[in-house]
């Protein structure tokens, strides 16, 4: 019986993780699609302002909402595992109050400090317009974080997936439209190219707020439609004699759950802010390079390289989101096998995507970049040097979730701080001594994620006494990916002798990569036919 329950939960985790991962892929593809016209409208300089503003927005956003889906889902799933819907409902109410207070404070802070961040911190005055337009979005995202956590805590990723897709669709249309309109307005008013780029960047950030508001409205509608069923479960829990937790105690637990998650996520986001500050201050203040040129380099890094790299990384974020409730429920039940199975399944799922994505970017990153954004030797070089970061960031994201889901909330924070210190020290040396410019940022981007993988792996082994199958989790996916990479490398060079079309090279290589990789993972037993049959869509094609 226990085995059946474990299998059922594993299947559910796999299905829910796949739903969220699929949504993550769609969201990233939409994001990639609208970034193409956005980059062409605002240029590399405008993307630099856009990206720098986003770094500040991200660090403030995590204080109000980034930690909420994970924290709320962890708390709600722990109560639901014991059929305690009464206190799960009280957690939702406390979380909404938290979102109201903290969201407003963070909104006000970003609104009032936008000018200081632009002029003093980054020494890029024109990025203030994008910062100001992002301020209201912070408040909206707090409520969105609570609602997504509420649904994820019930082990259903469908509402989150639907809201994410709709959010990104609205974001895409509004961002491109507002960016074009504001750029056009600046040029008509004879504000100059630099101001047009800055106004265009602000237009791009307006789309973020419009998308978030749309997603929140969708989740509220879903909540209201299912409120009667939820209320009935809450009433049944109350009548069964479950003790009601006080709002004060729930607030304390929420605070103690949110803070470690905030700190660990903050270090990730602080890495981006610190990188941007060190890079811009070194290049502008120390070497005297023109701010527009520095902003353009940063725009290539974030607007082209990271946009492409973040597509496969989004899948690991989806796996992590669906893993937290599973880990929390297994930990509450004292189910060691459930925890071990969840860890292994999550890592396998992540590595199976991250390995081929990393190798694929190394081999065909150049044609893909040229196809999407136009010829850019700098972006191609970044992709070649930074592609392994896809693998390391994917694994570190999931291992963070493993530790947090098992109540080791401080360990990812400690590990992230250590990785950040190593990362920052080496980056300063590479910038100031070796004068590597933006390339130093790319190399240290990979270094930070690698350090997190190593440190989290050590923590999981020590604290959870978990030893997964190295051959199944890492070696077989690597062999399959290496064979895939070798075949694609040969195909790419053969096609280049016939045509220089980036469109032909990209699509033929991707099709070949998918075919070879699927054959390899099945032939080597990396994925069994029984495992593939867990997916309803695939099951139709496997007899």
Please supply descriptive tags for the structure shown above:
543 residues; mainly alpha; 88% helix
What do you see in this structure?
The protein is globular. It has helices spanning 2-80, 85-121, 128-152, 158-188, 193-225, 227-239, 247-286, 291-333, 336-373, 377-386, 388-405, 410-432, 438-464, 470-498, 502-523, 529-532, 536-539. The chain has 543 residues and is mainly α. The longest helix is centred in the first third of the chain and has 79 residues, at 2-80. It is 88% helix and 0% strand.
How are the SSEs placed, and which strands pair?
Layout: H1 2-80, H2 85-121, H3 128-152, H4 158-188, H5 193-225, H6 227-239, H7 247-286, H8 291-333, H9 336-373, H10 377-386, H11 388-405, H12 410-432, H13 438-464, H14 470-498, H15 502-523, H16 529-532, H17 536-539
Helix pairs in contact: 1-2, 1-3, 1-4, 1-5, 1-7, 1-8, 1-9, 2-3, 2-6, 2-7, 3-5, 4-5, 7-8, 7-12, 8-9, 8-10, 8-11, 9-10, 9-11, 9-14, 9-15, 10-13, 11-13, 12-13, 14-15
**How big is the Rg?**
23 Å
Q: Specify the number of helices.
A: 17
Count of beta strands: 0
Mean pLDDT: 83
Extract low-pLDDT stretches.
Answer: 1-6, 535-543
Judged by helices, strands and strand pairing, the structural class is mainly alpha
Biggest pleated sheet: none
Order of helices and strands: HHHHHHHHHHHHHHHHH
Distance between the termini: 27 Å
Q: Give the percentage of residues in beta strands.
A: under 5%
**What oligomeric assembly is this protein in?**
single chain
Helical content, roughly?
over 70%
- Overall, the morphology is globular
């Amino acid at each position: 019986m226990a085995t059946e329950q474990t299998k059922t939960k594993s299947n559910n985790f796999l299905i829910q993780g796949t739903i969220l991962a699929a949504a993550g892929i769609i969201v990233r593809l939409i994001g990639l699609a609208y970034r193409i016209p956005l980059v062409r409208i605002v240029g590399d300089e405008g993307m630099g302002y856009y990206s720098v503003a986003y770094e500040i927005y991200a660090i403030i956003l995590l204080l109000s909402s980034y930690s909420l889906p994970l924290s709320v889902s962890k708390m709600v799933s722990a109560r639901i595992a014991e059929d305690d819907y009464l206190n799960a409902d009280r957690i939702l109410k406390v979380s909404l109050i938290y979102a109201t207070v903290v969201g407003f404070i963070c909104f006000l802070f970003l609104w009032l400090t936008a000018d200081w961040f632009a002029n003093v911190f980054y020494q890029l005055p024109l990025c203030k317009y994008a910062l100001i337009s992002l301020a209201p979005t912070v408040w909206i995202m707090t409520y969105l974080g609570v609602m997504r956590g509420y649904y994820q805590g019930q082990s259903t990723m469908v509402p989150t997936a639907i809201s994410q897709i709709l959010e990104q669709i609205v974001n895409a249309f509004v961002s491109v439209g507002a960016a074009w309109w504001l750029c056009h307005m600046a040029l008509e008013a004879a504000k100059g190219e630099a101001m047009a780029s800055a106004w265009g960047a602000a237009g791009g950030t307006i789309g973020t707020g419009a998308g978030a508001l749309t997603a929140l409205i969708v989740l509220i509608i879903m909540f209201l439609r299912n409120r009667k069923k939820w209320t009935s479960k809450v009433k049944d829990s109350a009548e069964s004699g479950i003790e009601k937790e006080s709002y004060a105690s729930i607030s304390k637990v929420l605070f103690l759950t949110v803070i470690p998650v905030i700190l660990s996520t903050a270090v990730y986001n602080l890495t981006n802010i610190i990188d941007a500050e060190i890079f811009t201050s070194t290049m502008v203040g120390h070497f005297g390079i023109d701010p527009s040129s520095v902003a353009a380099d940063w725009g290539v890094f974030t607007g082209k390289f990271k946009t492409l790299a973040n597509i496969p990384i989004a899948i690991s974020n989806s796996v992590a989101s669906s893993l937290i409730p599973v880990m929390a429920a297994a930990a509450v039940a004292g189910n060691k096998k459930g925890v071990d199975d969840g860890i292994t399944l999550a890592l396998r799922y992540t590595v199976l995507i991250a390995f081929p994505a990393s190798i694929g970017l190394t081999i065909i990153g150049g044609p893909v970049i040229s196809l999407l954004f136009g010829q850019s030797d700098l972006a191609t070089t970044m992709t070649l040097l930074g592609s392994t970061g896809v693998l390391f960031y994917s694994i570190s994201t999931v291992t963070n979730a493993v530790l947090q889901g098992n109540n080791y909330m401080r360990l990812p924070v400690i590990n992230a701080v250590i990785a950040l210190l190593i990362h920052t020290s080496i980056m300063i040396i590479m910038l100031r001594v070796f004068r590597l410019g933006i390339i130093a940022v790319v190399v240290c981007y990979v270094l930070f994620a690698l350090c997190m993988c190593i440190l989290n792996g050590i923590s999981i082994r020590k604290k959870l006494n978990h030893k997964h199958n190295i051959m199944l989790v890492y070696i077989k996916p690597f062999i399959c990916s290496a064979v895939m990479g070798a075949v694609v490398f040969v195909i790419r060079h053969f096609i280049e002798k016939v045509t220089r079309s980036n469109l032909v090279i990209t699509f033929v290589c991707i099709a070949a990569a998918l075919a070879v990789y699927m054959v390899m993972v099945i032939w080597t037993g990396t994925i069994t036919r029984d495992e593939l049959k867990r997916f309803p869509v695939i099951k139709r094609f496997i007899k």
